[in-house]
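Entry 14. Structure prediction run on the chain below.
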Amino acid sequence: ADKFANLGGIKHELDGVWRVDDVIFCHIMTTFVRKDQSSVTLPAATLTRLDSSDRIVEYHVYADLAPLFAQ
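Output returned:
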C-alpha cells in the first residue's frame, strides 16, 4: 500500500542554510497535511555537494518520517 496516499499536501519551510566550501547544509521544517486535515510537522536536513561549476553532484535528505505514520 502507498503510505503517502493519505496525504493531502506538503509544505516546506527553510529554517537555515549554511555553506562550507563545496557543501551546502539546510535545515527544513516539513508540514504534512493528511486528507482528514490533521497535520504533523517534522524536521529534516539536506546535504548538497557542488562541483566547480556549482552543479549538484551529490544530494542527501535526512528525515525521520516515523511520526507521520504513527497511529
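The first strand starts at residue 7 and ends at 20.
Filed with the rest of this week's runs.
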